[in-house]
Amino acid sequence: MDKRKAAYRPVYHPKEKVIQQASWLTSGIFYSCLLGALVTIPWYAWMKEQGNIANSYYDMSLTWFGILGLAATAGLPSVVAQQVEKYNAMSEYRVGQRLFIRCLQISLGLGILAAGAMFLLAPLLSNISGGGNDLTAIYRSMSLALVVFPVMRVLQGYFQGMQDMFSIGLSQLVYQGLRALYVLLSSFFLLQVVQSNFRTAVIQSVFAAAVGAIGSLVLLLLCWQKDQERWEIQGMRSLDKVETSIQIILWEAFLEVLPYVLLGGGLIVYKLIDQLTFIPTMTAHTNYSGDQLLNLYGLLRANPDRIAVIVIAAAGTLLLRYLPSLLERAAKQQKQEVVRFISIHLQRFVYVILPVVVWLIINVRPVYTLFYGANLLGSRILGIVLLVSFIAAFGMITALLLQSLDLVKPALYYWIAGLVLKGILQLPLIELLEVYGPQVATCLGLLLTSALSLRKIKRATKSNYQLAFRRVLLIALLVVFCGLITLGIKQLSYFWLSPDKRLQALLICLLTGVMNTGLYLYLTLKIRLADKLLGARAKRWRKNLRIK
């Protein structure tokens, strides 16, 4: 067999490559969010009465890390993944290799610039965030992570282009595992052993991102070193017929992935708006002290987000599992198949995510106690945040469906429209509703984005979704019925279990969770609704459970 033919890899549509890259990364988010939520339980407990303030500091630093990290990577991982595979398929291996090396150099430079900006601007960013001087050292502690993170991501993009998913998966595992381990060990030592200040523990918790990124980077470099033989062989086999400069290729690829990069940062911009407006607005219109406002911000953003973001990650993973099938049908212009796929997936999203959100809202008090201890205001805000997270997940689903239909620009415009509405309503709603205001503004902005996206999907596919609407209505009715039963069980459990004690709150969650899941699954299997959405899998479940 010809060696060059053996090295061939199939050509993918460039946009498909970008979305496949997003698919892998978003799937990894679920593990990250789940691990982060679990780590929060002991971490928050060790902070004691300063838990809300500590979590506010930590959350504020992660918001800026997300913004600057997005700017420092600048879409380069997607560019590398896309172009390396493209030129490998053309047997122009040297082009992909040179482009990868150039992207590594650019990412290192951008990382250094982002880290320098964070270090120098930390006092300013601390003040405009409402955290004061205490935040300065915390912000600066993430500077090293901003240097390493873009390089790590470009290396992941290279392995994505080489179809080496194992190396990416292992690097994600190392990144999140080392980060969580460092957070736990450093916080335990500082707070439980030497009884240090909680701010020092937060600094080390933020620095944990650098520890995880360095570990992941070392692993990726070792994998790359191990791959040097293939690198050299491909270099010798390269046709070397492409005369376009690397700079031109990079610029064209960057322009193509830019809308995807901006869409990927949509939700974090919502968080940034809250961070920049909540404490300053409340300071101007209320008599709350600085610590009281930081406590409120913890209840508003930092605490509930650790739980609610799991819903968003689960929704993304659910969609991206089926996305390659949609892309294949769209590429072949199989309109009816595309319409059917979009319809069935929107139904699957509601079928899986809605009962989870409703169960969480019903059990919001014991769930909040399980993570953060008893706090009535915190649990009420968590209920609102969970509702907003469902809308955010739905908005993300519709945006990705638009991307798969090659409608990325409308998807971007709709996200911008939602952000503009959020920005217009933010200050008046904070003045009117105080701690609830930012979430209401977010909810309205995301609703606008989702409504516009749904309308565009319907117009683009030119189809009637009445069947989907009827099924969604049926799912909603079943969820409400199961929710009412679950609510009754929860209220009965309060006679002998307290939702304000962690262990008893866990028992309440387990009891209601098992009952709600079992009843919902039984009903959807009994009326054959699950068959229409899950296919053969539902039939196997019915057979195993002996449901006729």
TrEMBL record:
GO terms for cellular component: plasma membrane. It is a multi-pass membrane protein. InterPro entries: Poly_Biosynth_Transport, Polysacc_synth. It is found in: Cell membrane. The keyword Membrane applies. The chain crosses the membrane at residues 21-44, 64-82, 103-125, 137-155, 176-195, 201-224, 245-273, 307-327, 348-368, 380-402, 411-430, 436-454, 474-497, 503-523. The keyword Aminoacyl-tRNA synthetase does not apply. Keywords: Cell membrane, Membrane, Transmembrane, Transmembrane helix. PROSITE patterns: PROKAR_LIPOPROTEIN. It comes from the Bacteria. This is Uncharacterized protein.
